[in-house]
Amino acid sequence: MPPSEKQPFYDPIPPTYDQALAGSSRHGQTWPPPRTHNDDDVLEQTEAQSLLHRSNGAGSSSRHPNGYHPPTVESDESDIASLLESDTDDEEAAQVRREVEEMEIEEPTTSRGLLWGKRIGFSLPRWKWSWRPRLPRISLPRMRIQLPSRPEDDGEETRATEESRNNDEDSESTTPPRRSWAFPGVNGMVVLLIFARVLAVTIIFGFLYLVFATDFFSSFGGRMNGGFRFRAEDLRVHILGSVEPRRLRASVLHFSKYAHIAGTEGDYATAMDVKSMFIKAGLDQVSVDEYEVYINYPRKDGRSVQIVEGDNVIWTAQLDEIERGQEMSGHQPYSFHGHSKSGDVKGPLIYANYGSREDFKNLKDKGVDTEGAIALVRYYGTQTDRALKVKAAELAGFAGCLIYSDPADDGFLKGEVAPKGRYMPPDGVQRGAVSLMSWAVGDVLTPGWPSIKGKPRIKPKDAPALVKIPSLPLAWRDAQVLLQNLKGHGQRVPEEWKGGVPEVDEWWTGDAKSPIVRLRNEQDENTKQPIWNVYGQIVGMEQSAKSIIIGNHRDAWSFGAADPHSGTAVMIEMARIFGDLVARGWRPLRTIQFMSWDAEEYNLIGSTEFVENNLETLRNDAYAYINLDTAVAGDDFHASGSPVFEQTLLRALNRIADPKRNHTLRDLWNDRHGELEGLGAGSDYVAFQDIAGTSSLDLEFRGEKFPYHSSYDNFELVEKVIDPDFVYHGLMAQVVGLIILDVADRLILPFDLVAYGRKLGTWVDNLEKWASGKLDEGVSLPFQELRDVASLVVSKAGEFSKWEQRWEELTARNGGWETSEIGGARMDYNNRMGAFDTLLLDTEQGGGIPNRNQFKHVVFGPQLWSGYDEAFFPAIRDMVDDKNWSEAERYIQKTAGLIRNAAESLTT
Predict the structure, then answer these.
(1) Cα-flanking dihedrals φ and ψ of residue 474, to 5°?
(2) Which chain regions cross the lipid bilayer (predicted)?
(3) DSSP output for 719-757
(4) Most buried among 277, 365, 795, 820, by the most CB within 10 A?
(5) According to the model, what pLDDT value does residue 71 have?
(6) Are 410 and 380 in contact, with CB atoms under 8 Å apart?
(7) CA-CA distance, 672 to 661, in Å (whole number)?
(8) Are the beta carbons of 119 and 576 closer than 8 angstroms?
(9) Is the preceding omega at residue 850 within 30 degrees of 0, hence cis?
(10) Is 99 a catalytic residue?
């Protein structure tokens, strides 16, 4: 049943991608230029002139010095006859005769060389795989019949005839007639043609012999190292030069034109747009996948926050933002929390800083009674996950929770607010889901299995990922009134608890005698709401089953220009560029998949359901997952992910320069001591890395905070504040393009397992330091076992990586050719690198993080109470937090065993 919020978000129909692209007038003339109704006629006329009217001068044909003049109806026969019978130029007449006789009448074909030349650099080949092989044509010399010469007058003709008859009659009686056979004349031109065609046939058969003799087809395989393929450097240059910021701008403009919460008609429209763009890009296969999942939607009159006295309402919050949508954008969504609990509760208001477990413990230690109260907490701070704020309030006994945006964290105290600046304005509201993605991910009613027909579903009241108390988000404009009414209630807060809301001269905690606040959150809850993932792929030519996946979510809480459509724009641009390369004859060694996820904002549903529905395939065949979410929100490049990508990432950064800073991204990375960070639980990489064991990478240009998940995250903000010239959108596309090419098309998979071993050692040291302050007296844990296996990975990976040099030597000995045997060994080498992360999964029955065994990776995964933050060895950290020392020791040993097995798999 469609929710009441699902009113038409766009009216009339949103502009098409091409229309959006054409509207980019500020970036120069659009391409292709608009055509008039006479364009086709002009084009035909121009082509005819260019093909036929090669007039006098430099454009004349070398075979016709005087130019070619097409014959007219009146003069064509007489002109040819006069030319053939010319007494002054017999040599030219003979040449023309030969050309007329040898002429082939065929339909002219149109070359695409000029078109390709406009779209691709000169260094790439201009041929396609769709060529039609044709053997050279061999024609025999034609027999030429000698015509009698023309008589001068009738008298002479009569006399000659009579004489001929007399002679014939005389000869008939004495000698039988003789027949003479006339062989065609052979001249130099005929010999030259025969020789050229015999040579062409010889070359073709020689080439075919070479192909089969070198076992090309049996190994695909038996290829020359670097031969039969586009040059890698040419491809890199082409990708860097093909990124067009104006197209990226057009994508952001198009997809942020109207609101599109997951499951709504606006969301479906964007799904169809992505599908259309994938098809237009020329991807090999494009499809749409539907799941039915649990989603809630707000009701216009179902939400309220009020201060009440008995039955009297003293004050009512405004809740919603000032309308930011334009006439074409439809109504912007109401302010609410995804996956929030429905309810209508009342209680005394209590302020609890950032809403962490430590903050609520602080209140308890001060003697503040929180049972049945309404919590007021602020975003960010010591607890970054909004869902865990609500869960902590629930566990502390609160009846409801309000979360507001404080100016000290993301508002005017930081700088200019939107729409002129990047910070949250007074009415700005940060929406978001409060489902516990660090406890269970995906559809909350099917944790651990796909949400498809025929599969079981649990009831919402039993879902471990759903909180049990209602919540709503607030702007500081509304929180200001609540904070002012707390004055004199409870205790003064410590200095670090004070926010930046203006005109709140005193900050108090509140207590059981605080003003009574009513929190009402009545909503529509659909347990089987359809959502739509869109997939497109380019099939690899060598290891087609092995895949490199590029993913970005499409749904947004409102317009979503930066989150997620800075990433959407980059993914669409990648599909266009790589699809264009395929059209030119290139094809990657491994399959490249482009995936547009739905319902990411609701607990990462779309990507998780896909992973759960294709789990074994991904564990066996997926080499890498590259995630794009809020790809551009600033100008500082950051990357998080599996250490296998370290060298690939640094190679890409070294080739790309920031034009505003006049340094390469690698230089800027080094200047700020950048490193590949760990993955937390914040985006679509979670299911790939933590459940499927697919090595994952998350990329973004970060900046200061912006109006995150609010209606101020619109195209105007991106174009005027975040990335005015779409420079960093272009740089991100270049980085992503180089990484895709490196991982999908290098003969040897560019995974850095030595870096993985080094990182493991660092993370073990950090784990031990973190745990040292939590251990009870006399308790010790065997962290040395983890340190030893980390060293083993470094050692084994170092030896393993030497095989690449041996492969190069073997192919060099064979004259650059890779035999079938060597090719098979290379693919096995790739497979073992690609499987390293997968081998770090705890896949035994009931394995994974205890009580959260949906998460299987022993190194990566969210800690129970860390949410978005990176947390290495999450299961061990949970056990240390719980002071479950025996289980912690057991799981350290189990983790060490899995890492040891992964290291041993690298034995060559």
Answers:
(1) -135, 150
(2) 188-212
(3) IIII-TT-HHHHHHHHHHHHHHHHHHH-SS----HHHHH
(4) 277
(5) 32
(6) yes
(7) 14
(8) no
(9) no
(10) no
Look up residue 773 and give its two tokens: 């302050």
Q: What is the DSSP secondary-structure string of 32-84?
A: SPP--TTHHHHHHHHHHHHHH---SSTTS-TT-TT---PPPTTTHHHHHHHHH
Decide if domain 293-526 falls under CATH 3.40.50.150. Answer: no
Low-confidence residues of the chain: pLDDT under 50: 1-17, 19-89, 92-93, 96-97, 99-181, 183, 213-227
Residue 117 in tokens: 């030349």
Per-residue pLDDT tens over the stretch 401-426? 999 999 999 999 999 999 999 999 99
Q: Are 303 and 431 in contact (CB under 8 A)?
A: no
- Would you say how long the chain is, in residues? 908
Contact 324, 311 (CB under 8 A): no
Task: Assess whether the previous peptide bond of 32 is cis (omega < 30° from 0).
Answer: yes
Tens of pLDDT, residues 7-56: 433 333 444 445 444 444 333 333 333 333 344 443 333 333 332 333 33
Report, in this order, helix, strand and coil percent for the chain, each rounded to 5.
40, 15, 45
Residue 530: CB atoms within 10 A of its CB come to: 15
SS3 at position 91: helix
SS (H, E, C) 382-401: CCCCHHHHHHHHHHCCCCEE
What's the CA gap between 64 and 7, in Å, rounded?
72
The predicted model scores a pTM of 0.78
Evaluate whether 619 touches 575 at the Cβ level (below 8 Å). no
Residues 6 or more apart whose Cβ sits within 8 Å of residue 811: 225, 817, 818, 822
Alpha-carbon gap, residue 532 to 272, rounded angstroms: 9
CA atoms within 13 A on the CB side of 229: 21
Active-site residue (options: 244, 600, 609, 700): 600
Q: Are 414 and 704 in contact (CB under 8 A)?
A: yes
State the DSSP string of 407-451: HHHHSTTTSPBTTTSSBPPTT----EE-S-TTT--S-TTSTTS--
CATH architecture of 750-908: Up-down Bundle (1.20)
